[in-house]
Amino acid sequence: MNRLAGKVALVTGAGRGIGAAIAQAFAREGAATVLAELDLDAAREVAQRIEAQTPGARVLAVRTDVTQSASVCEARDAGERSFGPIDVLVNNAGINVFCDPLTMTDDDWRRCFAVDLDGVWNGCRAVLPGMIERGRGSIVNIASTHAFQIIPGCFPYPVAKHGVLGLTRALGIEYAGKQVRVNAIAPGYVETQLTHDWWNGQPDPAAARQATLDLQPMKRIAQPDEIAMTAVFLASDEAPFINATCITVDGGRSALYHD
């Protein structure tokens, strides 16, 4: 507890899944947390849950469209008015866009990059000036194992996630001398509602679930809290010399040569 005491964090896409777990973990660890989420009702539900589970938690739900730079800046400003300068940013908001490359529409391409890459840059651009001025800060970008492993049928999502890693490394090096750290987390399969929705959309959901588990060296997939605690570590003062890198959280799946 209190590994993030005194810090102010902004988490995008905090209304569900990994983002909600990160917001809850940050609040448990003492951070004042801004839940920046397109679905404001979902963010408010998570904020209420945090307040019920963590007495004294300071949380704020703000409707945020990460594809719009002005909207992200508004979330930053709302957080700073309520809690003070942003110390930690988690760029978690993202969408799955899986298409055949040659039948994909221009709108599909733009939608993927607007959220999954431009949204990350919009978040970074909103908080970096303040972090640079104060000489401290931690940005955590939620990438994916799609950032370095390719699954056929998932285009252009891995292209955007490769970009997130490039952005993480470039900004981490650019502002290292200002004591602003920029890192990424690459989750593998995580048991979120999106994963359950995919299983349930298959002809045999139970078989689809089992096939996913069978692919994993640990014969299970990650829980959102397991990604969240990695974010806590990177956001905390326990990781002062970790910068411009990516921590993979996939139970060893990406190290497996073949099934």
Automatic annotation (TrEMBL):
CDD domains named in the record: SDR_c
Protein name, UniProt field: Short-chain dehydrogenase
PROSITE patterns the UniProt entry points to: ADH_SHORT
The organism's place on the tree of life at top rank: Bacteria
Pfam families: adh_short_C2 (PF13561)
Membership in a protein family: Belongs to the short-chain dehydrogenases/reductases (SDR) family.
InterPro entries linked: NAD(P)-bd_dom_sf (IPR036291), Sc_DH/Rdtase_CS (IPR020904), SDR_fam (IPR002347)
Molecular function terms, GO-annotated: oxidoreductase activity, acting on the CH-OH group of donors, NAD or NADP as acceptor
